[in-house]
Design goal:
The complex is a heterodimer of chains A (256) and B (401). By secondary structure, chain A is an alpha+beta fold. Chain A is built from seven helices and nine strands. Classes of the chains: A alpha+beta (256), B mainly alpha (401).
């Protein structure tokens, strides 16, 4: 008796669970699918297969609206540090920072604003020009990276970067994340969360800014005229930092 | 001039070995410093993410620039056919090779990954002036080495003019490359000037000749061989022209910057408000390294005084270090102008004047480079015949009274 009772109970629980999973999938899947499809169609995320090589079909970029970026908010910085395993050693001058919040005060009007500053992912990057070994490079899709295997730690790229976007790893690295390899004695900077992007995701800073409903950062494909970033740039405009250098940066700013 | 006789130093005295030992000891301290820096990471140095090139680079660039200049004497002899310089050409080339070796070793050992030397030698980005410099340094060893060979081996003596000319052209190219490391940095207000390349060339003339004169006088004094006033005073006059030229280029650099409004801030920083950097510029570079030596070189009362000339050369070297320090460190200390028209602040020291305090290991590494250069010279003088037996006035200049 006891056995048969147990069996019937298990059967009904299993039955319930499987129906719940099916119902849940039917309910959620179209939404997820639609969202992904919509993002992919608008060029807000990558649609390339994992084994597909990077191409100049895409030019990944970011648009930052300084009007929406609150002074004192560090959500993007915190997310970046977590994503890339960046920790402070209590030595601010030599601690690595991929992204930092900069406070600006207009000298003529006194107007104050705040913005996140990171590697601007230049098309013609000075860091790439000066790197003796070719460790600094820009991918076909516009993401500037450092090949940690051939970086000799000469730091000439840090001298050349107009945005002071790069950091030198001044000490042994511990607790690295799988997606962000680092190495003592080499130079590093914002990778635009390249692993996320390659897997159809968005950079951690943009994700955090959006999740907290600040919406000061947009990520997307600058080559796709229908992407959210391209549409926003076309409608509202956006500036490059140090446009005089003609570097064609992948990161643009509004409100400056 | 009659046939020149050369000799090697005996190198059997206690003083000789004490000199070699002392230099080796400094090199050992430098190696310990490198181990300390590389084992712990560069956080133990005074360098950081704002001042990325520190004291080792000051030493390295000074030595590399001086190396090119040390070849002056040889070049004047073989390219410009000035006979009086001919006997000193071997020492000139030796010193050039030694100084470059010392400078490059310092540069290498300050890398984040000095163990990747083979990567630096096998991966080239030909758009990088730094990569070009690696080729230029290697070529310098080749050309000057070949030049030295033609000077010392009678079998290949006939090739000397060609080797001398090639080395001359190469050393000018090399220093153009060194200056361009800074001239090509478009983002930084203190650099980004085509003038950097010729200024580095004239700096090399001055620093290299000052070191050469010191080494020459020390070699002859310590070996008891004769060094006449004719040669020394010729070198002294040449040094005066070079010191004046460095001052001229420095003035042109700052005046052209002052003409452009966008550079007023950086010039104010360098010339007036820069604290230690301004002091190093005016006291170290201009006064000690320029005006005082210039006055002493042409002062009538001390014309034949070797002690004064030694002092002059030392001051030029101190001034040279000050100049490289000002270019290198002050240039980095001045903040990048990413947002013109705005007051800027951040956790990454945007908009702030950066400070730099060199650490002991960095200074020891730099001194190790100098010690290595001198060790090579002192050792080589014993092994091969670099020094003319006499540089007395009658030998150096048959027309001297």
């Amino acid at each position: 008796m006891a056995n048969s009772h147990d069996t019937s109970t298990n059967t009904s629980r299993r039955d319930f669970l499987s129906k719940a999973v099916v119902a849940g999938t039917i309910t959620i899947a179209p939404g997820v699918l639609l969202h992904t499809t919509a993002q992919a169609a608008t060029g807000d995320v990558s649609t390339k297969a994992g084994d597909e090589s990077v191409s100049s079909k895409n030019r990944w970029g970011m648009l930052i609206d300084t009007a929406k970026c609150a002074t004192g908010c560090t959500d993007c910085v915190d997310a970046c540090n977590k994503e890339n395993g960046l920790v402070s050693h209590g030595r601010p001058k030599s601690d690595t920072q991929y992204i930092r919040k900069v406070t600006l005060k207009d000298k003529s009007t006194g107007h104050e604003s705040s913005l996140p500053l990171m590697c601007q992912h230049c098309e013609t990057a000075p860091c790439v020009d000066v790197c003796p070994t070719g460790a600094s490079f820009v991918r076909e899709d516009g993401i500037a990276l450092v090949d940690k295997h051939i970086c000799i730690g000469c730091r000439y790229c840090m001298m050349a970067c107009p945005y002071k976007a790069r950091s030198f790893v001044h000490e042994e690295v511990e607790n690295q994340t799988l997606t962000a390899p680092r190495g003592k004695g080499t130079v590093e900077s914002c990778t635009m969360c390249v692993t996320r992007v390659d897997n159809g995701g968005i950079p951690a800073c943009v994700e955090a800014c959006t999740a907290e409903n600040h919406n000061a950062m947009i990520f997307g494909d600058l080559n796709n005229p229908n992407s959210t970033i391209s549409v926003a740039l076309k409608e509202q405009g956006g500036k490059q930092l140090r446009p005089d250098l003609k570097l064609n940066t992948g990161v643009r700013y509004q409100g400056l | 001039m009659s046939k020149i006789e050369y000799t090697a130093v005996q190198g059997k005295s206690l003083a000789y070995f004490a000199l070699l030992g002392g230099l080796a000891f400094v090199m050992l301290l430098a190696l310990l410093s490198v181990w300390h820096m590389e084992h712990n990471g560069h956080y133990v140095t005074g360098m950081n993410n704002q001042i990325v090139w520190g004291m080792p680079h000051v030493f390295a660039i000074f030595l590399i620039v001086a190396a090119s200049g040390a070849l002056n004497v040889a070049s004047i002899a073989s390219v410009f056919r000035k006979k009086i310089y001919e006997p000193m050409a071997r020492l000139s080339a030796l010193l050039a090779l030694a100084l470059l070796t010392g400078g490059l070793v310092v540069l290498l050992l300050d890398l984040g990954r000095p163990d990747r030397l083979i990567v630096a030698m096998t991966y080239y980005n030909f758009k990088s002036i730094f990569a070009w410099n690696i080729i230029l340094y290697t070529g310098f060893f080749g050309f000057v080495g070949a030049y030295l060979w033609t000077m010392m081996d009678h079998n290949v003596y006939k090739f000397k003019p060609y080797a001398g000319f090639s080395a001359f052209v190469w050393r000018l190219t090399l220093t153009t490359g060194t200056g361009s490391i800074f001239g090509f940095l478009v983002a930084r207000s203190a650099y980004d000037a085509a003038l950097m390349a010729p200024m580095f060339i004239i700096m090399s003339f001055s620093f290299g000749l000052a070191i050469f004169i010191l080494v020459l006088m020390a070699s002859y004094k310590w070996t008891g061989m004769e060094l006449g006033d004719v040669v020394v005073n010729r070198l002294r006059n040449l040094l005066g022209i070079f010191v004046a030229s460095v001052l001229y280029f420095t003035a042109v650099y700052h005046v052209t910057n002052l003409y452009a409004t966008q550079h007023h801030d950086v010039e104010r920083f360098l010339l007036l408000d820069g604290g230690i950097f301004t002091t190093v510029f005016w006291i170290g570079e201009i006064l000690i390294g320029g005006l005082i030596p210039l006055a002493l070189i042409y002062a009538p009362g001390v014309k034949n005084c070797r002690t004064t000339l030694g002092l002059i050369c030392t001051m030029i070297i101190i001034g040279g270090f000050s100049k490289v320090y000002t270019i290198l460190i002050a240039g980095q200390a001045f903040p990048l102008e990413i947002f013109p028209g705005y007051e800027v602040s951040s956790s990454f020291y945007d908009g702030a004047i950066n400070s730099y305090t060199p650490s002991l290991p960095e200074i020891l590494l730099g001194l190790g480079g100098i010690a290595m250069s001198l060790f090579i010279v002192v050792f080589a003088l014993k092994v091969l015949r670099f020094l003319p037996v006499s540089l007395a006035d009658s030998v150096a200049d048959p027309h001297a009274k």
